[in-house]
Batch of 2 targets.
Target 1
Amino acid sequence: MKLDLSHTKPFLDNAVVNNIESRISETYKTVFDKTGAGNDFLGWVNLPSEIDESLLADIEKTAAELRKKSDIFVVVGIGGSYLGARAVIEALQNHFAPLTGEKPLVVYAGHNMSEDYLIDLMAILDKKDYSLAVISKSGTTTEPAIAFRILKQHIINKYGEQEAASRIVAITDKAKGALKQLANVKGYKTYIVPDDVGGRFSVLTPVGLLPIAVAGIDIRKLVAGAIEMEKLCKAQPNMENPVSQYAVVRHALYLKGLTNEIMVNYEPRLVYFSEWWKQLYGESHGKQHKGIFPASVTFSTDLHSMGQYIQDGLRNLFETVISVENANHELRIPTESDDLDQLNYIAGKRISEVNHKAELGTVLAHEDGGVPNIRIVIPEISAKVLGELIYFFEMACALSGYMLEVNPFDQPGVEAYKKNMFALLGKKGFETQTATLNQRLGI
Ligand code: PA5
C-alpha cells in the first residue's frame, strides 16, 4: 500500500505537523509499552503474529462443517461483533451474492431491532438450511440477545434441540455474560473473545474469522496481510511508516478545524469496509467533546448526491480516499459506429480507467474547493490487502486517540441510550428514572 499526501500539503501548517511528528515515536511507545489510557485493551497489537495455528485450524474445521450443511449462515451481532466480518465478506464476495446461488450466503441479524427485518429473515430461513453464529463479547447486548432468542426458537423448531445445537456457534467472553452460561447449558460450540481485545478491534479473533471462513474466504491470507503491517509498525515506529503519516496528517488537519473525515471509495464492495472504519474511529475518538466525525461516501455514485456539498459546502472536511489500482476483471467500453450516445471518445478504454480518471479529477476538484485529500493506494482488493488495511487503521486509530488525549479503547457514551431504553422498558434496577423519562417524552 502507498500513501499519497500530496493533496494535503497546501492545507498543512508545517510547524504543527513537525510538532506532532516529533512525538510519534513516543506515541508508539505508549502503545507498545502499554503505558497509555485503556492499556488493558491492547491485545490486538500482537494479535496477528500471535494467532495460534490450532485456533486457525479449528475455525477452518468448524467453518467447513457449517458450510456443508448451510444454504444460509446468519451472523447475529452488532457493532464490533459484526462489522469487521461484514466488511471483509462484502469486499470479497460477488456483488450479487444473493443471486448467484453460491452457498452459504452470509446474512446478518441482531444489528437492529426491526420486527419486520426478523420476520422477513425467518420467512427465508423457513425454506433454507441454515446455521448461525451468535457473537457478543459482553454476552448481554440487547439487540443480538433479542435476535438470538427468536432465531434459537426458530432453529430448534426446524431441526430439534440436538441438531439445532450443532448448527449454533457462540462467540463470547470466556466466563462473563448470559451468552456464555447459555452456550454451556445448551452445549454449543464456543469460541472466546480475548479479554484484552475490544469489540471494534476484534475482527482478527474468531469474532471476524469464523464468519469470514464460513463465507469461503482464506483467513490465513487475511492474517498474513495483518502480520505484514504489524511487522512494519514494529520495525519502523517513526515517520517512515504510512500508518504514522496518516495519523499525523489527519491530526494536523483536525487541529486546523477540519473536524469531519470522509472515507471515500470508488468500489461499491468497500461500503462495509467504510462502515467498519466509521465505528472504529467514531467509537474510539468521540470523547470529551473531541474527535473527528467519521463519514463515508461511495464515488462516483455519491458525487451525484453528496458531491455538491463536498465541493462547495461548509469547509470543515477532509477526505481519505481508498484508491484501488487494479480491478479483478476487465471490461472495455465498446465502439458503436453511429456513436449516438457520443461515447466513442472513450471506446476501447476499461471502465476502471474511466473510474480512475474520475477519482483523480475529483481529488483535484476537491483540493481546489478547499478539501484536503489523503489517498491510500492499494494494488487490489484481496484478503491479504484487507488484512494490511485492518491493522493499518487499527494502529492509526490508537495513535490518533493518544494524540487527541482520549482513551481510544473505551466507549462510555454508548451506555446513555441503553440506560434510558432499560428505564423505559421497566428493567429491574432502572425504575427510578422511568417516571422522569416518561414525563420528558409526554407519555
Ligand atoms: O467496539 C465495541 O466494543 C462495541 O461496538 C461492541 O462491539 C458492540 O457494542 C457489541 O458489544 P458486544 O460484543 O458485547 O455485544
Note: The CA atoms of residues 363 and 399 lie 26 Å apart.
Target 2
Amino acid sequence: MKALVTGISGQDGYFLTQLLKSRKYEIHGIIRRNSSMGTGTMALLPDEVRDEVEIHYGDINDAHFVTSIIAREKPDELYHLAAQSFVGYSFQNPFSTYDSNIGGTLNICNAVKDVSSDTRFYFAATSELFGHPAQTPQNENTPFLPRNPYAISKLAGIWTTRTYRDAYKLFISNGILFNHESEVRGPEFVSRKISIGVAKIYRGSNNPILLGNLNAVKDWGYSKDYVYGMWQMLQQDTPDDFVLGTGESHTVRDFVEAAFKEIDIGLEWKGSGLNEVGICNGRTLVKVSKEFLRPLESENYRADYSKAKKKLKWEPKTNFQQLVKIMVRNDIARLGKAGLE
Ligand code: NAP
C-alpha cells in the first residue's frame, strides 16, 4: 500500500508516519521548502522511519505541483493534513490561512478527481467548526457555527470534500477532530506553551508563563490515538465523517494546574481578568497577557464520539492526566539535554 501525507512535517504527520511505517506502507510526504531545509517533526523521527519516507518538496497552493505528484504516485491513501492550523495566527493572517486551507484543499480535491479517483482521501476537519456550539456534547450532526478564520477555512474545506465526494463518487472521509496534543505539538499552542513553561520553571527559570483565556474549555486528547482513527476511517467500506475526541472537557486553567502538579507545585489563583495570576509560595508562575486573548473565543467543547466508537471501534487510549504527564516529562527531558534557553 502506498500513502501520500500532506503536512507530514507537523504534529499529526509525526505519529501517522510511524503508524504507516508499522503497517509497511510505502510513504510519501509533501513538505514546504524553507531556506534552512528544515523538515519539522520529521527530524524527530527515528532514523529507520524517516529514511523510509520519500519527501516531495512543494506547496499545496501550487495546483500543478499537487496534480503532478498525485498523478505520478497514484497513492492508495492520501492523508491531507497540511494546513495553517493555528487559530490565533488566522486572525492576524486570514488571507494566507484561506489560501492554504481552502485553496490547497481544492487543489487536492481536483487532483484526486482528475488523475487518481481511486485514491482514498482523509481530510482533517476540526471541532473549531462548532464555534459557539448549539449543543454539548458535539457530534456529526451538531451545526457548524465557526468563529475564527481558521474554522471558516475548514468549513469551506469540509463542504468542498463533501461536495466532491457526492458529485464525483470519490472516497473522501472527514475527521472532525477535537484538540489533540503531544510532545511534538507546535510551541505556540497553549498546551505546549504550558508544558514548556513548566519544564523551564522546573529547570530553574524565573519567567512566569504568559497565557490568554484561562477559562477556555477544550476536549484534549493525544495525537497518537487520533491518527489511528484517521487510518481506520480509510479502511471502511464506504467514506463517511467522524467526530474523534475524549468526551471530557477541561479548561486551560485545569491544564496549567495539572502540569504544575507534575512537578509537585500546587498553584493558587489570585485576582481576576487581566490581573489574574497563578502563584506558589509568593512567587508568580502564571500571568494573563492581553496579547494572547482572541477577538472571539470558541467555547465549551466536548466530543460525542459515539459514532466512531460504534462504527470504527475507536476509543481514545490516553486520558487528560496522562497527556499532561507525557508533555511535561518530555519537555523536562528535552531541556535537560539542551539546557535552559
Ligand atoms: P501542524 O502541526 O500545524 O501541521 C500542519 C502541517 O501543514 C505543517 O507541516 C505545515 O508545514 C503544513 N502546511 C501548512 N501549509 C502548507 C502549505 N501551503 N503547503 C504545504 N504544507 C503546508 O498541524 P497538526 O496538529 O499536525 O494537524 C494536522 C491537521 O489536522 C491540520 O490540518 C489541522 O488543521 C487539523 N486539526 C488539528 C487538530 C489538533 O488539535 N492538532 C484538531 C483538528 C484538526 P510548515 O511547517 O511548512 O508550516
Note: The mean pLDDT is 96.
